[in-house]
Design a protein that fits this description.
The chain has two helices and no strands. The chain is mainly alpha-helical. The protein has a domain of about 30 residues. This is Dihydrofolate reductase. It comes from Massilia agri.
């Protein structure tokens, strides 16, 4: 049977401004490695719309 893990990205005060958040390279790599090990992700409508940003390639993006 598969294991279901719930997680949330949030600041210590309970708020994250997704337009201003910029993780350093180490934290970003850790998040990518964690996400690659997942079989899937479930998002609500608003978060899904925010995450659609990554559906397109952007020339300023690095390898990560």
């Amino acid at each position: 049977m598969a294991k279901l893990v719930c997680g949330m990205n949030v600041s210590l005060d309970g708020y994250v401004d997704h337009m201003a958040f910029a993780p350093n390279a180490t934290l970003f790599r850790r998040f990518i490695d964690e996400a690659q090990g997942q079989a899937g992700s479930v998002y609500g409508r608003v978060m899904y719309e925010i995450m659609r940003y990554w559906d397109e390639e952007h020339p300023e993006w690095g390898e990560d």
